[in-house]
Every structure is written in C-alpha cells, then in structure tokens.
Amino acid sequence: MRTQFRVVDFIVDFLSRQEVRHVFGVGGANIEDLYDALHVSADGPLGVVAKHEFSAATMADGYHRAAQRMPVVASTSGAGAMNLVPGLAELRSSYVPALALIGQPPRSLDGCGSFQETSGLAGSMDAARLFEEIAVHCVRVAEPAAITEELPRAYAAALAAPGPAVLLLPKDVQQALLAPWPRPGAAARAGRPRSADADRARAVALLRSAVERQGVAVIAGEGVARADARPQLAALAAALGARVAVVPDAKDVFDDRDPRHLGIAGVIGRAEVQAALEQASAVLLAGTRLPQMAGAGLHDHLKGVPVVCLDPRAPFLEPHEDLVRLSGDLTEEMSLLTGELLVPGAALQERNGAARALAENLRWEAPAALPEPRTQPPGGAPGPGTPESAAPESAVPEAAALDMTTAARVIGAALPERSTVVSDAGNTGAVAIHHVAVPPGGRFIAAMGMGGMGHSFGAAVGAAFATGRRTCVLAGDGAFFMHGMEVHTAVEHQLPVTFVIFNNQSHGMCHTREQLFYAGDYSYNLFRPARIGDGMAAMFPGLDAVTARSAGELRAALDRAHAGRSPALICIEVDPAEVPPFRPFQHAIAAGTNRSANQGVVPG
Predict the structure, then answer these.
(1) Which parts of the chain register pLDDT below 70?
(2) Structure confidence at residue 116 (pLDDT)
(3) Rounded CA gap, 304 and 413, in Å?
(4) Do residues 312 and 192 lie in contact, with contact meaning Cβ atoms separated by under 8 Å?
(5) Residue 148 region by backbone torsions, left for phi larger than 0, else alpha for psi between -120 and 50, else beta
(6) What value, to the nearest 5°, has the Cα angle with vertex 358 and ends 355 and 363?
(7) Beta-carbon neighbour count of residue 79 at 10 Å?
(8) Which of 496, 454, 502 shows the shortest CA–CA distance to 477?
C-alpha cells in the first residue's frame, strides 16, 4: 500500500475528480512522471499517446467539440512543447477549453544551459512568456505545494474563458512529495451575469418590429455548439419565424433538414444565402462574432440593419448604431429572449403555438407546424434544408466516376445516425462543408480559427474517444502527409474512425490559387502520384484500407467500415483542377481574368 504521494499523483487525482477520462500527449523525459502516475492510478484517466504534439492538441479539440468534455494535453519540454503551439492556438482562437500540462527541466538546471531549457534565464527562451500569449492562463509551478492551488485555478480559467490554460511543470516539482491533501471536488463553471432587462426589452422590440416587415434572419455560430444550445436555438428561430444560416464551423447547430435552414454564411456560402440575409429587416447573431470567414460580404450591409447579438464577445460590427448585445450565458439568453417574444397576448404568441411548445419542451425536434418565414430566397433558389445536393445521392449511378462533389454526397448519405464528421482545411473542407449533410443527431467539426492542415486526424481520434461512436474524417492528401499518421493511434486503440482521403496529388487550394490568381503557367503544389490506400493497407495489416474509383465502390467501402467498430481508410483519387464552392474562386472564374496577387482568403 502506497504511503507517499507525488505532485503528479495529486494531478491525476484532481483530474479523476473532474471526471477527466483521457489525457492526450506525447511522452518524454520531462513529462514521464505524469504518465507513471496515470499508470499507477486505480481510476485515473487513460493516457493516449499521439504521433505528434500538434495532433495531441487537436485530439483535445475534437474531444471537446464532439461531446463538450474537458480535455487535457500533456507534453514534454523543448520541441515537444513547441509542437503544441499551433494546436493550442487553434483552441484559443476557437474558444475551446483545455488544460495543457507541459514538462520542464529540473529547477536546479535553470540558467545553466540545460537540454531543452526554456526558463528565460541566461539568454534562454522563456516558455512562460510564449504560452502567456497563446493561452488564456499560464503559470510556471515553482514550488511543489503550489500545485494544490494552481491546478484548480488553471482548470477553472480554461472553462471560464474558454480556452487553453497551461501549467509549466519542472521535473523535480512533478517528482516532489506532497503532504496528504483533501479530496478535491468538481470544479464549478463560473456563470456569466445575465444581460440587463432594458437591453433585452430593446432587443424584443427590435425583433418584433422586424417580424412585421421583412422578417428576421439568424446567423448561428460555434458558440451554440460550445454551449450545446441547439434546442434553444431551434425554439428561438421558431418563435421569430426566422430562417437560420450557420457559419462554416457551426454547420451542425441547426438541423439542415429543417425548412428554415438557409445554408452556410460567409466566404464558403452561396449567393442565395447572402441575398436572403440581406433581405431581412433585422439579423440576430447567436454564438458568433461574425468573423471574416463567416461574414465576408455582409459586414458593410449589416451596419445599416438592426442587429441583436447573443454572445459574450463583441461582434466584428462595431461601431454600429443599432446593435443590441445580450452577453450573458448563451443558453439562458436565448431561453429568456424566446420567453419574452412569446408572452401571452403578444402577436407572436398567437401565431406561434408550435414555437411555444418547442420552447417549453426544449426537445431537439422540429415542431410539427411553424409559421411561414417572411424572407424567401430570390429567384426560386433551392429551399433551405437541402445541403447543396441538388441531385439526391440515390441518383448517383453505381458506375459513376468520383469527383469531390459526387464523393461528398455519397459519403453524406452513408453516415450513421449520431456519428461525427471532421472536415479538414482547403478544397476538401469547402466541398465537405457544402455537400456532406450532418448525420441525424450527429456533429460536424471544422477548425476555422487557425485552419491548420491535418487538424482532422487528431480531432477525429479525440471525438471517437469522447463519444464512442463512428467518426468520419474528410481530408486531402496534403493534410494526410502532414498529420495522417494519427491513423496509427486509431489502429492502436481500435477506434471507430473512417478516414476518407481525397487524393488529388496536390495541395489543392494552393494549386487552385496559382491557377486563378497568378499566371497559371506553373505550380509548386502538384505532387508525383502516391498510392495512399495501398500504402496504408501495407503499413497496417488488418486495417481495411482501399482505393474507391466509383460511387459503387465508395458505397461498399463505407458500408463495410460502418458495419463494424474498427478503423478504416478509403482513398478517393480526384482531379486537382476541380474548383470547390469557395466564393473567391467563383468570383475569379466569373470575372474571367486572373486576380491580383495580393488577394487573401476572402475577397476584399
């Protein structure tokens, strides 16, 4: 029976008390004591070893986004810590809470030129200063006894911001013995103060007035997913009779089969969605600040339209003369606003009996009958609720060759209920966001903060650990070459992850930009052919890894993968010349001329 306990034992005990089930990381000399504590703990979290620290951070990202679980990341010092930087930056920019435990050399070696020193002494790099810029909270634990206060404080800071909190842990501090400690309880999530009644009353008046004219449009963002406030969003939209557009990284927050669903807003969105948003007499932002990727082309228009913003963060619209902000807890603010809109005797209450039932029950179901939306897509455009798939998947013949769009539709139709889709960056991401429907009751994850290629591989592993359900990666071959070896992690743990690789033998979006925005007579971004499916089958005996060349072969491979609980990989060979539904590209093609070289991601 153990009679002595170390700092790392306290850490594992604390995490267990918070019901943390997994720690994602890569081992090393200055973090190995934590892994030892994970091993000896009777009921502690499972240590999951990634192939790269960036992927450990993206595992944490997917873990939280798929199931709102609090993730923990562990890394050693030096290059291991530096490899965490882009992953933690994504967590910070996407407001995903996480706790990062980063090992450091022993304190006695600080300022002595030790291996991987980042103490900030004697001219060395200062890890504390670095991570203070990336994390919402960063502390170097200089004394063993301080861990009993610093760990709960960091955990709470991550939840409150939300974002990544970092503890820098010298090796000798980790190994130090601690006196017995009181069993830590669960950390309480700090609540946000409710918005002022006067602000809510102003928002209600503004929205009621808009409903009587051209109606209200809602733009829903990733904050709805983070708060798991989908039922409240559905009830609010029903109360307003509003159509709902979603930002690219919040595709799953409103049912895309609902007749009110408009589609994707922003740079990846359709012109019809933008037109519908511009026709509305008021716009309600729910869980989004409307950053550039979500609001491209809308910002100037919205400055002349009344806007209600439900988000603790200020939207990227200020200054704005007719902006009402409700900055309390998103779930509560939406419920309160819905209740105010449906007070007995109000005109909206009389029209919206179904919305009243939805608000009261808060079930994630579409009501049986809803008031007609007051804004309509112009020109008889495809109705909302059809995720860009003009032709149903069943119309795709078995022998049909696969381009990216056709493959995406086949994949979307084959996804099991309650499964998770994780989309990577680039051309593949643009196609997936448009053409892959969200599975009923499922999730759709896309990292739009830093937009790092290869994010999906680790994120899918984390999502599968969090939910235990089938997760589907949609990534290009460029992303695969960066971080695709997390397939190995899925194989090691026999996770239900289907990796779908769109292999166009290129960095597809970079190649497309070369052709559209530059001379087009060269490319740095085309690769020699690589047989990814065959290669992965040879590398991992037992992994169902195939190359699908027709719609029938793709359906068969998906059905086989989804029938079991094991990982699978499907490679689809596509043409690098295929242009995805990305508005800057469509603008360039419509113009018929090359654009200037200084165009960024979004047209100015």
Answers:
(1) 1-3, 184, 188-190, 344-394, 593-604
(2) 87
(3) 40
(4) yes
(5) alpha
(6) 155
(7) 12
(8) 502
